[in-house]
Amino acid sequence: MARQLDYCTFCPKMCRHACPVSTASGRETYIPQVKMDRLNQLRLSHSTWTTETTDPLWACTGCRHCTMYCDHGNEPGLVLFSGRAAAVSRGVPHPALTNYSERFRAREQRLAAQLQSLFPDNLATEGEVGFWPGCDAIDKGTADIAASLALLDRVGLSAVRLVDAPQACAGYPLLAAGHPDLFRWHAGRVAQSLRGFRKVAMGCSACLYAMRAQYPAEGVNLRTEVVSLAELLAPAAQNLACSLQRRSVYYHDPCYHARYNGVIDQPRKALSQLAQVREFAWNKGDTECCGGGGLLPKTMPLVADQMAKRRLAEVQATGGGMVVTSCSTCSFMLKRNAPPNVEVANLATAMAQLSETAFTAPITPPDDEM
Q1: What percent of the chain has pLDDT over 90?
Q2: How far is residue 333 CA from its own chain's centroid?
Q3: Which among 52, 53, 59, 55 is positioned nearest to 24, based on CA atoms?
């Protein structure tokens, strides 16, 4: 970490253009080089740990776009998340994340109970393949869960069941909030809940990354294979009948799928069975962040929304259309910031609509806690 901080501190800001937070906020303080320099000054005790000095550490979604333009392969997102943990350990959490561990636990309990009440006939504790929709899907996208189940049944994967567990989230927000010890404890509990399944499909790109990379890094042995829902749907999508007149849709790459999980071609393959897939100017490994990562909707809500608006401005400028994404958090961020002429849909919901697969969406009161 020290080497990366030193390299970034004395860098001529080559990745400046790639930070969506600094671009959306218009603040030089939030470019990667300055954020890393601020953390370096704190590490070297050249600055004291206060709410003001640690503020730049929270201006990051962990999207990894800056890393794509770094000749040294530095990971500012991961380093800044470590800086958050150091801030929390010194009693300087972000003001918006006070008592976050208790809030996370309460939300977990509520959402796990909500999933059980809404989909009582689709739950299982063991099986060949399970489906883990993610906390944002349970909280804000129950229609997407219903569409996913209907679509899986339509393509011949009717045996897939929702994972019946006391947890609703894989724990990524705990890392983003600066609580690695709680994350490690939570990851162990999730691993136990998944042990009855050979494979589990994930609806959240950040939590898929957490399971694949951060669980092993924290010594948590996840015996279950974890994949994205898009990876499960891609080979089965050929079983869907497509319309003779294919609709054009834009595909938005979630940052954690494109730059952490390698999930790029699979959602396009699934969508291309039913629609003509169009690309954003910034796409695949060069995708722009929607603002949903790193708990930015809690720490910098206006900037997070501005990032989503910027992402959709390109579609709006061409006259509008449908934007599809394969992450429940991206879906939520883009939907709530979409202009009138832009429709945003989760991958499974879009595929269900395009293939005329019927599903009934349960209605739940939304809660913006992330």
Answers
A1: 88
A2: 10
A3: 59
pLDDT over threshold 90, residue 240: no
With contact defined as beta carbons under 8 Å apart, do 140 and 118 qualify?
A: no
pLDDT of 296 reads: 98
For residue 171, the tally of other CB atoms under 10 A from its CB is 29
Across the chain, what does the average pLDDT equal?
A: 94
Q: Does position 254 have pLDDT exceeding 90, yes or no?
A: yes
Phi/psi for 227 (5° steps) reads -135, 165
Pick the closest to residue 70 from 96, 36, 103, 104 (CA basis).
Answer: 36
Structural domains of the chain in order of their starting residue, each with its CATH number? 2-92 (1.10.1060.10), 100-233 (3.40.50), 241-354 (3.40.50.1860)
Query: 367 pLDDT exceeds 60?
Result: no
Q: Report the pLDDT averaged over residues 58-81.
A: 95
Residue 182: count of CB within 10 angstroms of its CB: 17
The Cβ of residue 326 has, within 10 Å, a number of other Cβ atoms equal to: 30
- Residue reference for tokens 């999207």: 63
The helix/strand/coil state of 222 is: coil
For the residues 304-330, what does the mean pLDDT come to?
Answer: 97
Mean pLDDT of 144-148: 96
Residue linked to tokens 């003779």: 244
Q: Where are the beta strands (DSSP E) in the chain?
A: 123-124, 127-132, 161-163, 197-202, 225-228, 247-252, 275-279, 321-325, 342-346
Q: Find the Cα–Cα–Cα–Cα dihedral 4, 54, 77, 91, rounded to 10°.
A: 100
Q: Report pLDDT for 75.
A: 95
For residue 23, how far is the Cα from the chain centroid? 20
Residue 293 one-letter amino acid: G
Instruction: Give the whole-angstrom CA distance, residue 10 versus residue 8.
Output: 5
